């Protein structure tokens, strides 16, 4: 027997996957070596493609080194028994151009068969009934994971899950993950198997089963004769537990009327969109053309909350001269006194710290008049931290005299940061670092001809005086990201990430971004008739536009193919958002319109911004 030497190196990604693969075989012989006793095992289970290409001849025999401590321990125990009667499970590892076997466990079977097949167990989410394996098999475009069966093997013909054996399948590996698969022909059959254990030779953590070739063929024959077609009733859309907060619904109706009384004509979706973003994010940015009503809307929203301009509503016009945090906050004078900036932002933060149940809104007006990264950096870092760690450092050093302003201030949950920006030639671009941390909401102008259809002014009651506890606790749901998203939504996010990162490795959908989208979706308010104020479909569409597509910009060479609607140009966004998978999630009216707007910019100016 000789060592298994490969003709060419293996890819690092495959080497990592190979370590988690499982094989079964039988002992061939043991040999005495200078460094100890080694052994050889013949593999009786399927071999992954990269090894098949280099190991031309069967049977596949691998050497095991007893210098490997795991091998030494198991092999020393086995020598007391008859090696030729032992069925062994092992893994393969790569070292200096050679492949070696590492023992995992052994079984003494009824008899050792000539070969074995693998039957993997798909992993599906336990959170939602709609994400059952059978639904994924029937949909065809929803993938499921098989952790112990990577794409390096032939696609399996049988699957085992929860008391059922599935067959008549045609699985294709996903481009998103090496362990993700989806069903192509959608004519899956199943049989119920109550005595599954009697068919299995070795089980791997209830995620993979080895059966003999003979048993495998028997199961396939039984599937053809007895198999029933998987049929799924159309699943009703699962809604979150209905949690209607009357105060929040009344508040939003009040905001709509109040905004109208102020002479602002806004789409009500924009009002709800801003409200959801403000309560689930520390920072929300409103954008649009000059004169769209961004500043007036923020003032009206603050007044509806019962906040007073100059007191709880702090307005900070951003100057083009702002170049560093000192321009916004202030600086420490050499004499030990902290000189506050003319913005008075520090005083506002101190007041908010003292009155933690009082809401405050701090507005950075026209914040892209200067490079935001230059003067806003301390906030970008702090706002994403947990509440107890959200501390803004103002200055360092030992105070020589008593200073009314402390060296650091805690930024509480009672502060809402809002930025307004214009899209014109006088302003600066927003960085990806900023866009990954905020919703960029563009207010939509309603047609002038529709203004006459709006309701007449109504007499308003006094503001509701919403507290910080209501806004950031009572009106908030905090489920985990996996609990919020459906299978289709997660699949679509994965595919969007793949498309974006294939064009630019620095783009894509981060975990922070996905968590923020989940927070937005679960916090869409209800109306008193049990319906959402923004449908989940539109909410998901808005989040794709406001959280992900805003980072797409550049020249034709940089983003041209990404914004194209021609499928032949490669991975593009519009065909993906019009696919059958996407149609199960949303129509993506907002996102597709935004992409086409970007494409138009590219054609007109040679640059999409």
Features:
five-stranded parallel sheet; OB fold (Dihydrolipoamide Acetyltransferase, E2P); elongated; 609 residues; five-stranded mixed barrel; Rossmann fold; alpha+beta
Ordered list of secondary-structure elements with their pairings:
Layout: E1 4-5, H1 12-20, E2 23-33, E3 36-43, H2 49-54, E4 61-64, H3 69-78, E5 87-95, E6 98-107, E7 116-120, H4 133-139, E8 144-145, E9 159-161, E10 164-167, E11 171-173, E12 180-183, E13 189-192, E14 202-204, E15 208-212, H5 213-226, E16 228-229, H6 246-261, H7 268-280, E17 283-287, H8 294-304, E18 313-317, H9 325-329, E19 330-332, E20 338-340, H10 345-354, E21 360-365, H11 372-382, E22 391-393, E23 408-410, E24 415-420, H12 432-435, E25 439-442, H13 468-474, H14 481-484, H15 487-503, H16 511-522, H17 536-548, E26 554-555, H18 556-563, H19 573-577, H20 580-583, H21 589-605, E27 607-608
Parallel strand pairs: 4-6, 17-24, 17-25, 18-21, 21-24
Antiparallel strand pairs: 1-6, 2-3, 2-5, 3-4, 5-6, 7-15, 8-12, 9-10, 10-13, 11-12, 13-16, 14-15, 19-20, 22-23, 26-27
